[in-house]
Specification:
The protein is an all-alpha fold. The chain has seven helices and no strands. The longest helix is centred in the N-terminal third of the chain and has 22 residues.
């Protein structure tokens, strides 16, 4: 089997994507968004089903019997993901302020977002000890200082970010 590299796949999608009617593409994109929101929230313990997520996010309906926090998580995640897509479409470079804005949107109606925590936190059932607020602040400042000085293509940049964030998360 002949596999295309990711750059070829991107070119193929861009070329073929132009032939897809706009209304179909918008429906596909929205379906992807809803699945992404559902799956991301489910990883964090949100119990909304995919259908309930769709009803909340796309149809603006409430779901009975579910904690209000879970409904806010779905709505807030939709706002944050929309913001991320806008930043990407505008060609914005990832900055500390954008990360804070994303966090603020994600935490809307849940906790105060977009600010560094100062209290210690624990992850129940995990041996990993998250950094203190002071350590986290320093790590993020160093991360963005280093990030600004790297000339990387999108894939290498994504790998670098994933590696750095993963290393910082697991340092004790």
């Amino acid at each position: 089997m002949d596999y295309m590299n990711i750059f070829e796949m991107k070119e193929t999608y861009a070329a073929k994507g132009k032939t897809i009617p706009k209304v179909i593409k918008e429906k596909f994109d929205r379906a992807f968004d809803i699945e992404y929101i559902h799956n991301s929230n489910a990883i964090e313990g949100n119990t909304l089903t995919l259908r309930e997520t769709k009803l909340i996010v796309e149809d603006g309906l409430s779901v009975g019997g579910k904690p209000l926090r879970e409904i806010y998580e779905a709505v807030s995640h939709d706002k944050a993901f929309t913001y991320v897509k806008q930043c990407v479409s505008q060609g914005k470079t990832l900055t500390e302020m954008i990360v804070k804005d994303i966090h603020s949107l994600l935490m809307e109606n849940i906790i105060v977002g977009g600010v560094y925590r100062y209290q210690p936190v624990r992850i129940t059932g995990a041996s990993h000890k998250p950094p203190s607020g002071e350590e986290m602040y320093s790590q993020i400042k160093e991360f963005f200082y280093t990030l600004e000085r790297r000339e990387l293509d999108a894939i290498s940049l994504s790998a670098y970010i994933h590696l750095r964030m993963g290393m910082e998360e697991h340092q004790e």
